[in-house]
Specification:
The mean pLDDT is 96. 64% of the residues lie in helices and 0% in strands. Helix 5 runs antiparallel to helix 6 and helix 6 runs antiparallel to helix 7. It has 184 residues and is mostly helical. The protein has nine helices and no strands. The radius of gyration is 17 Å and the shape is globular. The longest helix is centred in the first third of the chain and has 16 residues.
């Protein structure tokens, strides 16, 4: 058993679970990370996650779980969404792209680029994704493009992407979130 990898996975699980109470609003609707009430995040689980992340660093390799937990750590340590250290998160995604590449990792990296450099650069990063066509049935691709175009005030294009994402997801909660984003 790779105890370093086990600690990294436990860290990731704890970071993820620490946000469970803030993921939905009073009506049971999805709250995106930017709108979550961080005071509802479970600090004890975050402390446990940090402990496991530190313990994972005692190994001699860098695992996918360590990088993913590192991303979650940056979100957990930021007092507000605006204080998130997107540069550190981008470094983690750059390492994921190098050592554990996938189109989904590249999509997530593009979102970070949009946070750092704006939505137009995020769209360019999406267009540069290796094997972009493999994401054509992944609803988060058009959902992300819709969000970035919305930020650029390209409302017609954004609505087309949101509609495509609605068609691709089977989740009623995701469909509702996407419909709320659509500009009438």
């Amino acid at each position: 058993i790779n105890s370093s990898n086990t600690h990294a996975l436990l860290s990731l699980i704890c970071f993820t679970a620490s946000r469970n109470e803030s993921r939905l609003d009073a009506n049971g609707d999805i709250l995106i990370l930017k709108k979550q009430d961080r005071s509802k995040w479970n600090r004890a689980l975050i402390e446990k996650a940090v402990h496991h992340l530190e313990a994972s660093a005692e190994g001699e390799s860098l695992s996918k779980y360590q990088l993913e937990a590192g991303i979650a750590y940056e979100h957990a340590r930021a007092a507000t969404y605006q204080q998130t250290n997107w540069h550190n998160i981008l470094q983690c995604y750059d390492l994921l792209c190098t050592y554990y590449p996938s189109p989904v990792v590249e999509l997530n990296r593009a979102i970070v680029i949009s946070e750092l450099n704006g939505p137009a650069d995020g769209i360019k990063a999406i267009e540069a994704i290796t094997q972009l066509s493999s994401l054509k049935k992944y609803y988060l691709l058009p959902a992300t493009l819709g969000e970035l175009h919305f930020q650029l005030q390209h409302y017609d294009i954004a609505n087309q992407y949101f509609a495509e994402a609605i068609d691709l997801t089977g989740s009623a909660a995701e469909k509702k979130l996407l419909q709320q984003k659509m500009n009438p």
